[in-house]
Amino acid sequence: MHRALLFAVAVAVLIAELLNSAIEANTDHISLEQHPLAKRAKDMGSAAVLLALIVCTAVWIAVLWKRFV
């Protein structure tokens, strides 16, 4: 069960990164001009990746802690 959980959170990070890349590519495709909403969309995508990484790290630490302590 732990291996499945560790695999799932790692895949979740990859999914978040793919969605962030899609948002950035779409935003750049629409217009290369600076726009506050485009910046906001890109920042939110990056924040989603950061949160996914934080969750992934927390899960890995919790599983390793339970296994070795």
Description:
With 69 residues, this protein is mainly α. The chain has a single domain (2-68), classed as Orthogonal Bundle (Helix Hairpins). The mean pLDDT is 96. The longest helix has 33 residues, at 36-68. The chain contains two helices and no strands. It starts with a helix and ends with a helix.
Based on the model shown, name its key terms.
Helix Hairpins; 0% strand; mainly alpha; 69 residues
Name of the level-1 CATH class: Mainly Alpha
Indicate the proportion of strand residues.
under 5%
Order of helices and strands: HH
Low-confidence stretches: none
Our count of helices gives 2
Write the layout of secondary structure elements.
Layout: H1 2-30, H2 36-68
Helix pairs in contact: 1-2
